[in-house]
Amino acid sequence: MTASGGLLCYCRAGFEPELAAELTERAAYAGQSGHARADRGTGYVVFSASDSGAISRSLPWRELIFARQKLELVAELRALDPRDRVTPILDALRGQGGFGTLLVEHPDSDAGKPLAGLARSFGNALRPALRKAGILSPRDDESAPRLHVCFIDGDHAFVGVSRPRDSSPWPLGIPRLRMHADAPSRSALKLDEALLVLLDADERSRLLQADMRAADLGAAPGGWTWVLTRHGLRVTAIDNGPLRPQLLESGRVEHLRADGFAWRPPQPLDWMVCDMVEQPSRVAERMATWMREGWCRRTIFNLKLPMKKRWQETRTCLDLFAEQSQRPMTIRARQLFHDREEITVYASA
User: Fold this and answer.
1) Residue 171 reports pLDDT greater than 70
2) What is the mean pLDDT of residues 261-277?
3) Three-state SS letters, the chain
4) Catalytic annotation, pick one of 70, 113, 190, 304
5) pTM score
6) In this structure, are 110 and 244 located in the same domain?
7) Which of 110, 140, 199, 220 yields a CA-CA distance of 20 to 30 A from 118?
């Protein structure tokens, strides 16, 4: 067993260097020291630090962009004996307790996915042992800290802790969404996930109300427009391309064949969304114009990232957006599960 301090963060496989750079820069800005350990394609990053609690408080999960999940690291266990993996975990947790739930996981990577069966079966063996030792509550308690065991291989695992108010509520940090048969495109899942991850339940209730007005820039074939109409919004869909005919049958969609980068609304809107394929700096500038001019109250948009220096481009574009908006705003950004080479941004004036 290796006693550990710091964080274990899950991410999209291939974006480990971006997450490592983000954690390192944010920690330094917060006055915390540490170093990141990342291998491309693994789906996770370890950020080693002397005090797990202090570094976790300095890096709130909601502010992280490339982290799907954030855990305070308890131990790294190597050379686990397949005949008894339970005892080393109990030893690592000696003196600790009060955990409400147990999650046995694996990275969302090519190497991690074959471990799904082990994770399921081991969870069934570990859970009663933890309860007998008084480490895990007799019944699941979602309000208490969660205990995580993440298998990297059959003989290699991390033990970590997540705090309900400072972590993702979903296993692996991935909300499981199903593609609706009526959705015009799979891009609908991106906006569904954005609304679930970037807004809390109270915000969704207050900010997505029937007959609010929205614009969807670059709407065709209409996946994001469809999501908004399901929440009862009235949508002006801007695109020179065609929409799925059933969207227009709802009576809540007006399709204007126009350039999404040139069009402006005749009156302020509640929402503007945008998933156009364009240079991220150009998108950030146009979104800033919408906020600066008061054409919308809040927005969700995607920034398509380059193949290299993606953390630097992310930081540059978000700083550009904030500076050119010229008004106080709430800004949240995340690389979602349904994103690929992009991040999704929510902003509210």
Assistant:
1) yes
2) 97
3) CEECCEEEEECCCCCHHHHHHHHHHHHHHCCCCCEEEECCCCCEEEEECCCHHHHHHHCCHHHCCCCCEEEEEEEEECCCECCECHHHHHHHCCCCCCECEEEEECCCCCCCHHHHHHHHHHHHHHHHHHHHCCCECCCCCCCCCEEEEEEEECCEEEEEEECHHHCCCCHHHCCCCCCCCCCCCCCHHHHHHHHHHHCCHHHHHHHCCCCCEEEEECCCCCHHHHHHHHCCCEEEEECCCCCCHHHHHCCCEEEECCCCCCCCCCCCEEEEEECCCCCHHHHHHHHHHHHHCCCEEEEEEEEECCCCCHHHHHHHHHHHHHHHHCCCCEEEEECCCCCCCEEEEEEEC
4) 304
5) 0.94
6) no
7) 140
